[in-house]
Amino acid sequence: MSDFQEIIRRNQEMLDRVIGPAARKVEDMNRYAQRVQETYENLIGPAMRKAEEMNGYAQRVQEAYENLIRPAIQMAEDMARMVVLAEQRNQKFATLVRKLKWPPPGHLPCTVIDRIADAYSSGQLSDTEVEDLFIQAYSPRILGEIERKWASYGWLADRLPILQEALANYPDGRYHSVVCTLMPQLEGISGTEFGRKPKPKDDAPAVFGESPHGALVSDYYLQVILETFDAWNPTSPVPDLSRHAILHGRATGYGTKAHALKLIIVTDYLLASFEARRNGTC
Prior knowledge:
mainly alpha
């Protein structure tokens, strides 16, 4: 072997001793890296993809909340506030009609009722001014609608001429006649409907319904029209619109436009309630 070849052999052996282990180390590192990659693919990769899927699901839930649930919650909150406001308006109106001793004028639009109640509670309207507004609301057109409605109740046919006479007396200013004509009909109609002697306190919810306005009419009927007093005690105050006082001839101050209209309103509520009972709509 020549000296040159011997030098090459020795260099190769030296390379093998130095570079060989390093190369094998590199190979080991490559294999380790491969195992790490495989571990990632087999364990961490699916977990990461699952996390991405969960993030996507969470995003969809958030979008659903923003698009559907949040508006529904807002709507529910708005409705709750409206219920509270409606209750406040009803309470304000109830306070008004109870103080003035009026049945609720049901033919007034709700917006008008609210404005009247607000103006009255703030002192902008007096008792007399509110009463005038109630009377003005029952125009000849409204009274005509009431008469046509009563005439449509077939079960009322035998009493209809009596009720029509009362309505006809109102625009002519015969207010005593309106009150005296309608007053006994309230009890007579109720007795016919129930097939027995009326029991006002027990029957009132059925007679006038259980709506907020119906409850106010019921209170008015029991506290004003059925107000009792010592009829023959000369020192006892005589109620203006007490059935007891009128039919016993003690009351004399009931012949006003306001009192006549109050009886028309109460009668209208009573008839509408019985019509609804007959139709199964109450």
